[in-house]
UniProtKB/TrEMBL annotation:
This is Malonate decarboxylase holo-[acyl-carrier-protein] synthase. InterPro entries: Holo-ACP_synthase (IPR017557), MdcG_C (IPR049180). The lineage of its organism: Bacteria, Pseudomonadati, Pseudomonadota, Betaproteobacteria, Burkholderiales. Residues 20-134 form the Phosphoribosyl-dephospho-CoA transferase MdcG C-terminal domain. It comes from Burkholderia ubonensis subsp. mesacidophila. It holds the Pfam family MdcG. GO terms for molecular function: nucleotidyltransferase activity.
Length: 144
């Protein structure tokens, strides 16, 4: 096991602007677009996965098959459709697959594609597991 003294820092995953320098050139515009989308919807998106590790460590983590892992806090219900439609549009034109989740304040998350598909029920992931729940309830911020 690694002791806490071995950690250089502890913090939130990096924001889109913080990973631009570590991202492949072709990924930079989609990252800027995602940052702008979040700003329009009143939420700060963040990066996790390979690009986050590459940005944080300076070590190579991305491969030609890497996707872009992102998450956004759940926006107010008035902005949810705008955020989901925007994610779909950016993903459709990006050179990489944009994967990720919308997260409620309690940490529960749902893959953005499931929410965008308009299905009545979605897989809601929590620290305790995964459960099928109402998409509308999740988007409304209810804890199920």
């Amino acid at each position: 096991s690694v002791g806490a003294d071995a950690l250089a820092s502890v913090g939130a995953p990096p924001a889109f602007a913080a990973v631009l320098g570590a991202a492949p050139a072709a990924w930079r515009q989609p990252l800027l677009d995602l940052d702008g989308l979040g700003a329009r919807c009143g939420v700060q998106g963040r990066v996790f996965g390979s690009l986050a590790w590459q940005a944080l460590t300076g070590e190579p983590y991305l491969t030609g098959a890497s996707d872009l892992d992102v998450f956004f806090p759940l926006p107010g219900i008035a902005h949810a459709a705008t955020l989901l439609d925007g994610l779909a549009a950016i993903d459709a034109h990006a050179p990489m697959h944009v994967d990720g989740e919308l997260l409620r304040d309690d940490g529960a998350g749902v893959n953005w594609r499931e929410l965008h598909a308009g299905l009545p029920d979605v897989a809601i992931k929590t620290a305790d597991g995964v459960a099928l729940g109402s998409a509308a309830g999740f988007l409304a911020g209810s804890v199920q």
